[in-house]
Amino acid sequence: MRLDPFSGPYSRDPATTWRRINATATSISYDDHLAMWLIAGHDNVRTVLADTTRFSNAATMLPITALTADAGDILAGLDAPAVAVAADRPQHLRTRAILRALMPTTVARAEQQWGPLVAARTDDLITGMTTNEPTDLMHFAVQLPLLVIHDVLGLPVAAAEQVRAWTDDFADLVWGNPTAEAQIAQAYSSVALWRFCADIVSRRADRGHDGPGLIGELLRYRNNDDSNLTIAEVAALALNIVGAGWITTTGALGNALAHALAEPVRWARLADDEHYLNLHVEETLRHSPAIDGWLRLTITDVTLDGVTIPAGSRCLVLIGAANHDPAVYTEPEVFDPRRGRGGQHLAFGAGPHYCIGAALARLELTTALRALARRLPSLALAAGFQQQFKTSAALRQLTSLPVEQRPAGRCPVAHGTSAGPRS
Known about the structure:
The protein is an alpha+beta fold. It has a single domain, classed as CATH 1.10.630.10. Helix content is about 50%, strand content about 10%. The protein has helices spanning about 10, 15-20, 40-50, 70-75, 90-100, 105-125, 135-155, 160-175, 180-205, 215-220, 230-245, 245-260, 265-270, 275-285, 320, 360-375, and strands at about 30, 35-40, 55, 135, 295-300, 300-305, 305-310, 315, 380, 400-405. The strands form 3 sheets. Strands 1-2-8-5-3 form a 5-stranded mixed sheet, with helices on one face. The protein has a 3-stranded antiparallel sheet with strand order 4-10-9. Strands 6-7 form a two-stranded antiparallel ribbon. Helix 4 (about 70-75) runs parallel beside helix 9 (about 180-205), helix 7 (about 135-155) runs antiparallel to helix 11 (about 230-245) and helix 10 (about 215-220) packs antiparallel against helix 11 (about 230-245). The radius of gyration is 21 Å and the shape is globular. Mean pLDDT is about 90; it is low at about 410-420. It comes from Paractinoplanes hotanensis. Keywords: Heme, Iron, Metal-binding, Monooxygenase, Oxidoreductase.
């Protein structure tokens, strides 16, 4: 089993690679080029993601591409404590419990707490769009989650574009294949993002002003007591949430829009059919997960599916391939919102590290798709559109999503199109 996540073909059509991987005789093998174990197969991937006793999260944010010494020295300044994404028990269990107490974990609760905020941001962005000529919908797909996560955390919206640039650099440093020169700039950006979060939290704590959003709630929970949370832990939680909370939702929203616009009948249904809307979101998460790979580190020798992985091994867990496992899904390459077992996808992970922001992401996806389909019913993919994703071993985000108005009189009926995403 071989994977080249930085190749042109994978960036254009990862599903073809997943199909090849799923057709191999073994679902677990060592990749000499990446210097890590590849784990495919729906059951295997679910097992690894949920197993915190044999698989550590310590490697989750360690760059896939080896850092130069200079970049490594700079990145050492990102000295945030492990609290969530890269934490193991008992630290993870402690901070996870705090977040669960403060963040809605069901769509209904997320709607109650954040629904008006998400709806207002969505409305403002649609109002500001130019729809008389081709528009890149990825701008909308970036801006909505980016602004919402600032609102949710209580970060200054004026800093959103800078945060976006820092986060993009950090994601490319960890999951991309940057040159030595690019690593230097990206390492500085990563440290700057951490210092930004740490400075905001420290200033609020020093002034005795908790402030708005989740940062304020975390500081109130802390109650000036380090045994509850330290200042550094509050800042690290903010870093984790802003770092992961918009970029993954951007990928999912872009993919959901591409699938919807590929067939006018889908676009029409999103406007008023709530049942179909939810099915469309879940099938997007299965078919085109925004995170299609994740890292784990074996704590001990692990035998999985008849293969023994030595202790201390880095493992790339292939979520995209798992979501296309033909043993679980019939014709997995077909985008079919009405398929069975769609809810068994692993787009948000599994087990103790299941994405804490899943409810918020689903709220943003359904709100955005509904509003866009209602207010722009004639929207369609621009002629000649071909999907292209940012180069990454884990994050699947379209580089652009050009759209235009359908000509008057063109009926919203199902039809095939070579311009749409593969499905």
